[in-house]
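Example 3.2
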Amino acid sequence: MKEDKDSKWFDVEFVPKDYIFPKEDQPRNIDSPVCDSIPVIDLSNSKADGHINPVESILTASQEIGFFQVINHGIPETIVNDAMNVLKEFFDMPSKKTHTTGWIYTSSTDYAKDGVHLWRENLKHPCHPIEDCIHLWPENPTRYQEVISAYLVEIQKLSSRILEMISEGLGLQSGYFKGMSEVQLLSSNLYPPCPDPSLTLGILPHQDPSLITLLYQSDSTGLQVMKDGQWVNVGAIPNAFVVNIGNQLEIISNGKLKSIKHRVVNNTHETRISIATFVNPSPDCIIEPAKVLVNELEPSQYTAKQYKEFVQCNKAFGDYTVALQNALKN
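Structure, written as tokens:
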């Protein structure tokens, strides 16, 4: 699709052919009800308040659904709003220079499968350690690096807190995830309005190859999770973060916690912007079930493997990981 300098690629009356997915991949239930069974967990609660301990709530959600939302999480609203605003500025720029490493994906370069494009624009870059990779981030808008750095510092604190709560819930020793869980990747997405969302997808169904993923979606919907064999919409709650269990945490928990499929569908009228941050082990980290969770009655369900071996089996993520390692060496 040719883009005119005065118009956006998505300013069209009909979905172009190379954005139309095969019928078997097209979303059939875009208007499915919001899933009210995805828990919303108040991290300010404690047993002393007479509420359910958030540790118990997080563990239950991670075992049964693999998704939950957190509120009263401690990240200042101003920091989150600044991050969303600077990303809006980035996606609104008429010309986005693609880094030599190719981490900015426009509609013409964002392939899903068999030559079909995703209906989105995507910005991906490494995050850890910030001082070593900040030079790979966009230089425009000029405040991007400062704003996103502040955001990531807060995300690291929150992710460490959530993993410590999961560790407690599983019966692992305190600090089990310390040193093996860093916010290593940021993936921001713009999903513009689509003439016919039933033909397109923002992101294909997938599981995350992370420990956990934290997603901020503001007040925009579009995220769907697979629950009981059906795609259901995840509601958008103001100033909440969606947290989902990744494949690595499912392995470490020996299958007690669930990494489930999710996708993003498009909307006819609304624009969706989201920020996903992936909390991953280091590439050389050995991922295997925690020894205290393995016994004669519950033998290990997974083979020990380095994290980099795991992601290399995931082509899209593996290609990115190789590019990331090469870039950080330069």
